[in-house]
Amino acid sequence: MRMGRCMQKCTQSGGCIYTCVQTIRWVPVIIILCAIGWGYYAYVVELCIHTLNNDLQRVLYLLFFHIFLLLFCVSYYRTIFSPFRLPPSIFYPDKDCLNELMACERDEHLEQAILARYVAIHRVPVKTRDFARGIRYCPKCKCIKPDRAHHCSICGQCVLKFDHHCPWVNNCVNFYNYKFFLLFLGYGFIFCLFVFFTDLPYFIEFWTRDYQEHNLKASKFHLLFLVFVSGMFAISLSFLFFYHLYLTARNRTTVESFRAPMLEGGPDKRAFDHGIRANYREVFGYNRKLWFLPIFSRYVLRSLLCVPDRPSM
């Protein structure tokens, strides 16, 4: 009995196991930051300062490098630390409804009847259903799931417009940070591509000419791995970036791309598709000048629960 209580305390917030798990989750982020730090040294010091001889070329390389790096880092930061908000209070049944649900915990039909009554009385804006075409309810969070919301077992709560939990940002990719996640992928891809192609000629030159000086041998080592790392990340990010651009054009999440949303009339893979232009506006906003900046969009906040009224497919 004491052992069980001890384990329960350790796994709760503030416990030793909980703290260790939370610390380990930051390891992928630390790896990314270390790669950025080393890449900064390799590009700025070894390539631009020790290798380039043309001052104009050096200035241009450093200018664009820092612009892309800044946009990438800000997008990455906002993807990680965007405010994580719970579903609106209307999705949480009152005490009377919760007591009724607890009383009929094993009777699914009665449970659905109680939820349907609550949704009808309080006009809860939900149109998606579970596989049995019932109201989607989360017993852990004790809330009716909003459209496109799913419970994240890692974060321990229901997440609005849940896409996936990304270990590289130690956060769920969701309604509030999806734009930043897209910009993080896009600027990461452009940044790595820029580093790769600007470093490649000097990497080739080091391997085709015979340098004996010690500092040039050190530069060869850094330029070798800089080409390899930037090329590898550019390829990886390109797949993710263009895949999520496709999902945005269809207004789908990663979850919905594998499992079509269930409406009252059945599954519909185009349940949230308003057209390419409107779909991108839901993520990036109306003002196209701000699409490429890591800032919030007002239009997104008004479109969270928007579902087109049309027959399911």
UniProtKB/TrEMBL annotation:
UniProt-listed Pfam families: DHHC
Location relative to the cell: Membrane
Plastid keyword on record: no
Membrane topology note: Multi-pass membrane protein
Origin: domain of life: Eukaryota
GO molecular function, one term: protein-cysteine S-palmitoyltransferase activity
InterPro entries: Palmitoyltrfase_DHHC, PFA4/ZDH16/20/ERF2-like
Name the record gives this protein: Palmitoyltransferase
